[in-house]
Amino acid sequence: xxxxVALIEHLVAMHRPTTRCLDVLDSRDGTVFARVGDxxxxxxxxxxxxxxxxxxxxxxxxxxxxxxxxxxxxxFLEEHVEAIAPILTLENGKVLDHARWEVLNGAxxxxxxxxxxxxxxxxxxxxxxxxxxxxxxxxxxxxVLAVTPWNxxxxxxxxxxxxxxxxxxxxxxxxxxxxxxxxxxxxxxLLECGAPRDLxxxxxxxxxxxxxxxxxxxxxxxxxxxxxxxxxxxxxxxxAARHLKIAHLELGGNAPFIVLDADAVDAAIDGLMxxxxxxSGQTCTAPNRVLVHExxxxxxxxxxxxxxxxxxxxxxxxPRSDLGPLISGAAAERARARVREAEAQGxxxxxxxxxxxxxxxxxxxxxxxxxxEPGMAVYAEENFAPIFPVTTFSTVGECLELANRTRxxxxxxxxxxxxxxxxAVVDRLDFGLVGHNDVRIVQPSxxxxxxxxxxxxxxxxxxxxxxxxxxxxxxxxx
Length: 478
Ligand code: NAD
Fold this sequence. Notes:
Bound molecules: nicotinamide-adenine-dinucleotide
Strand order of the largest sheet: 13-15-16-11-10-18-19
CATH topology of the largest domain: Aldehyde Dehydrogenase, Chain A, domain 1
CATH class of the largest domain: Alpha Beta
Radius of gyration: 23 Å
Distance between the termini: 66 Å
Structural class: alpha/beta
C-alpha cells in the first residue's frame, strides 16, 4: 500500500468515531476517497472540556519539553513530506510541488514556534511607591477556537496550532468541511511527537455555523482565530463581540503587483509566476492586479505571455501539470465569467495556457488580460484563480492611487531597479505585508497582518505569538 493511503487510513481511524461521517472528495474526479467523523454541535462541550484538561497537562511540562515537542512535529512533517503531500493534492487539487511546499512551510512554522516557546516572557519593573515591584507576565489565553479555510489545509492550521501551543494554549480546529485531512495530519503529528491527547483537537463538521456559534458562546473558549473570507469573518467578528471574545481575523486580499521599470521586468516575471501560481492562484496573498509602467508594458506582456502559454492545467498528481484544478467547478465557472465580463467591458485576452484532455469542470487555463480598468470585477474583486489582469500607469502617483484603491489591505508587491524610487512606493502602500523585489513573504518569523478589511490581529512572528497570551501584571510590596 502506498504511504499516503496508509496515512489516510490512520487519520480516519484516529479521529473519534461519531455516528455521522463527512465525505472527502478526490479533486481529480469528485469520488469519495476518505470519510471522517462529522462532529455534531452537542459534542462541542466534551471537546472543550478535554482540551482544557490537556492544556493543564501541557502547562505542567517545562517550556523546554514543550519546545521539543513542537520542534519534533516540524521534523516529523518534513520526514513524511512524501506521504503527506499527496493527501493535500487529493483533497485540494494543488500540484504535488505546491503540496510539498505547504508541508515544509508547516514544518518550519512548528520549528520556529518551538524556539519561541522557550522565550515567551514578561518583564519586571519598579512600581510607583517605594518597595513596589511589578511583574508583567504572559499567560496562555486559554482554549482557542481556530476556524480555517480549504486553500492551505495544513499550513494555515500549523500557524494557529504551533503558535497557540507555543503560548501554552490548547487549540480546537474547525477545518474546512471540504479539506479536513490537513488538520488531521497536524493532530496525528502532535500525538506521534508526545503532545497530550486533545491538546489539538480537530472537529470536522457539516454544521460549521452552528458548531462555531456554540463554541463562541462557551465560557471556556476566550479566543477565536479565523482565516477565510471577509463575509464570514465579518459575521464571526460580530458573533465574537456579542460574547466578548477576542477575534483574530485573517481575511481576503486584493494584492497589487507593481512593476516600475524595464530593468525590473525579468525578476518581476519570476516572482509573479511563483506568487500567482502557488495553489493555482487560490492564495490570499496572490497578486490579483498587475500594475505596469507604460514604458515597459510591451516588454512585460511579451515575457509574461511567453511563460503563461506554456502552462498546463491537469491532474495535480501528474508531474507534467503546472497547475491543478480549482477547488470546484463553480469556482472555475466564476473565474471564466469574470474573464468574459472583462472582455465585454474592453479588456483583451493576450494569451491562455492549456488544459489537459479529459479534465473535470474545475480545470481552468491561466489567462493574461490587458487593458484592465479599475471598474472591472476582475480588478476590483479577489479572483482566486490564475488570471493575470494587467493595467498600465504613467506616473508613480497614479500607480499608488490605483494600488491603494481597495478595501483589502493584505499583501502588495513592488519590483523596481531604482532603490530610492521603489522604496518610496513601498512606503506609501496601505498593506500589511509588502514584497519589495521579492515574493517570498510568507515565513514563520514575518508578522502577517491584514489592514483594512483584510482583518485584524497578527499571525506569525513574536507579535503573532503574543496574541495567544493574556497579560497579568502583579504589583508586589516587598
Ligand atoms: P470561508 O470563509 O467560506 O470558510 C472559512 C471557514 O469558515 C471554513 O472552515 C468554513 O467551514 C467556515 N465557515 C463558513 N461559514 C461559516 C459560518 N457561517 N459560521 C462559522 N464558520 C463558517 O472561506 P474559504 O472559501 O474556505 O477560503 C477562501 C477565503 O479565505 C478567501 O477569501 C481568502 O482570501 C481567505 N484566506 C485568507 C487568508 C489570510 O491569511 N488572510 C489565508 C487564506 C485564505
